[in-house]
Design a protein that fits this description.
147 residues, seven-stranded mixed β-sheet, five-stranded antiparallel β-sheet, 12 strands, 63% strand
């Protein structure tokens, strides 16, 4: 089951992932838009528990997003004793972001992570259309299972 955000016919979803302590797992990020409503820019933030995730290794665009001229830039925007928050922006070129798989968030599960489930919160998500209309999206989560 994936978490999804629905707004004006658009959905952004983070697929669940699982792995063992010390392993890198891939969280797939997908987009679904109503016909003619595909955004040209996406932005989101992820808040990750430090006790469960050693590091976010990278967030990479899918081949379809790259073919549309899109790239992803991510940066840590805050860190507390319990969590760190990263903001990612997908942009580039004149083409809209295609529906389907748009990116993969690669993260390394902490070596000391205990078995069970945890969430990576994705919030402050927004989409910007070709005509520069901004659409804010409500929060969603990615469920990660430590085996």
């Amino acid at each position: 089951m994936s978490s999804a955000v629905v707004l004006c016919g658009q959905t952004i979803a983070f697929a669940p992932a699982s792995g063992r302590p010390g392993e890198t797992v891939a969280v797939k990020i997908s987009l679904k838009s109503a016909d003619g409503k595909q955004p040209s820019i996406l932005q989101w933030q992820t808040t990750t528990p430090l006790a469960k995730v050693d590091k976010l290794e990278e967030t990479v665009p899918s081949p379809a997003a790259e073919a549309a001229g899109k790239g992803i830039t991510c940066a840590v925007v805050s860190k507390t004793a319990e969590t760190f928050t990263t903001r990612c922006i997908m942009a580039g070129g004149q083409t809209s972001i295609p529906d389907g798989l748009i990116a993969t968030l690669n993260l390394k599960i902490a070596a000391g992570a205990t078995p069970g489930r945890f969430e990576i919160r994705a919030d402050k998500a927004l989409a910007v259309s070709k005509d520069l209309t901004r659409v804010d999206m409500p929060p969603t989560t990615a469920i990660i299972t430590v085996r």
